[in-house]
Amino acid sequence: MPANRTLMRRTGAVVALGAAGVLAAAGVASAHVTVHPESYAKGATDGVLTFRVPNEEDGASTSKVQVFLPTDHPVLGVLVRPRDGWTPKVTTTKLKTPVKTDDGTITEAVSQITWTGGKIGAGEYEDFDVAFGELPDSTSQLTFKTLQTYSDGKVVRWIEAPSGGEEADDPAPTLKLTEGGEEAAAPAAAKSGDTGGPKAADGTDDTARELGIGGLVVGVLGLAAAAFAIVRGRSPKTDA
Questions:
Q1: What is the maximum alpha-carbon separation in the chain?
Q2: What percent of the chain has pLDDT over 90?
């Protein structure tokens, strides 16, 4: 019996450590600045991109968000949706290569959007909606480098583009552009009735968090089953 109790205590510690590891991984993944939906059709028109910014600091709030739009494959007809408490500043840049459209030749495009004046507290996130008139059809993805500034002066640089299938430490929000017919649905944040206030991070539908929780459940059940099998195998047998 004492040996079985010791084994159970050790197994319990392993289960707890495994659970903590899965939860930590899920928390890190969900803390990234992301763009939603994750994909649109090449050349899509009249859509909305939502940049989701979570606060990952316990002792500071997010006070400034800067999103940089690519100009080598520009997003045309950009409009910023008003967000309560936040003041947007839109910067345009002259294009090296003008873009020809049905409405004429475009020589300038938005290259940066900066939101200031608001606050994203600990355990909260904010959605920043950007409407577009047309996405480029000459590339398979768009990378939106982002700077996140905190009230204590810390700046997190989400600027690393995906490479080799491995996730970067500080990945930039990346939108996949697919062939026609695979366009993603408009994000829920763009629907009417959104109050525009900060949301609690626990209420998100972030895919990474869901996968992390699913992994936690599977891992805990597997470890518990293994522990039961070990204990059963080591338990003394009794005569019938």
A1: 91
A2: 57
Is it the case that residue 93 has pLDDT exceeding 60?
yes
| Beta bridge pairs of residue 238 | none
Residue that has been written with the tokens 């950009």 in this structure: 78
Spatial separation of the C-alpha atoms in residues 17 and 11, rounded to whole Å: 10
135 Cβ contact list (under 8 Å, min separation 6): 40, 41, 42, 43, 44, 45, 47, 75, 76, 142, 177
List C-alpha distances in Å: 189 to 70, 100, 114, 117, 224.
Answer: 23, 31, 19, 21, 40
Give the pLDDT band (50/70/90) at residue 200. Answer: confident
147 and 158 Cβ atoms separated by less than 8 Å: yes
Q: How far apart are CA 186 and CA 37, in angstroms?
A: 7
Amino acid code (one letter) for 45:
T
DSSP string, 125-149: EEEEEEEEEE--SS-SEEE--EEEE
Decide: 179 and 42 in contact? Cβ < 8 Å: yes
pTM, two decimal places: 0.70
Beta strands in 45-190, from DSSP E residues, in sequence order: 45-54, 62-68, 79-80, 87-101, 104-120, 124-134, 141-143, 146-150, 155-158, 174-178
